[in-house]
Amino acid sequence: MTVYDVTMPIHAGMAVYKNKEELKPKIEMVRTIDQGSNESRIILYSHSGTHVDAPYHMLKDGYKLEDIPVKKLYGKCRVLDMTYVEDCIKEEDLRKFVVERGDFVFFKTKNSLEDGFNFEFVYLSAEAAQYLVDKGVEVVGLDALSIERNSPEHLTHQVLMNHDVLIVEGLRLKEVPEGKYMAVIAPLPIVGGDGSPARVLLIENEE
User: Fold this and answer.
1) Would 31 be classed as within a structural domain?
2) Residues of 123-139 as b/e, b for ≥16 C-beta within 10 angstroms?
3) Strand 26-31 to 123-124 pairing
4) How many domains does the chain have?
5) In a domain, 62, yes or no
6) Is the pTM of this model over 0.85?
């Protein structure tokens, strides 16, 4: 059985959205082994690295992290290779794939080949998001720190969240072949939270 960890490592110099300094993690040692144990304090932006967006992130009445249904954190996942896409994933890019109701869909793009933040990252169009909604997809994941780019109205987020599709951003899929997997998505159940870094694993589907 092959298990892929598709999580961005968290560290002080990690890539953050638009390279904003205020979004970078701050990690401080507060106790050392000489004092009995190594312990640290972490200040972490709720949408750092690989993370889950709770609907409350964009919807005033959306549910929060602690209310995310468990069925959206473990399930059948399809990784779709979109590394040929230069700008945005469109509906026409999706039509050649078989996507079934209840699927998790993760998009592998050229974003996974870069370590830093690229202002021209590949994103998902609102039309493609609607196509996935119509197919009954449960979870959508992308290897960028946001699922959309330069969209003041956050249309892609709105389309997905208004139809109860969970969004995972910041995936690292460089080493993952296109195919079927079981996905484990583990955000922190922060009470009242709008988003949380998450450990995400893909387990090779042997069916």
Assistant:
1) no
2) bbbbbbbbbbbebebbb
3) unpaired
4) 1
5) yes
6) yes
Question: 122 and 85 in contact (C-beta within 8 Å)?
Answer: yes
Tokens of 194: 């709008």
Asked if 99 and 77 count as a contact pair (C-beta separation under 8 A), the reply is no
Residues 6+ apart with CB under 8 A from 200: 5, 6, 7, 50, 141, 168, 171, 183, 184, 185, 186
Predicted local confidence at residue 150, as pLDDT: 87
* pLDDT tens for each residue of 122-153: 999 999 999 999 999 999 999 999 999 988 89
> What digits encode the pLDDT tens for the residues 99-118?
999 999 999 999 999 989 99
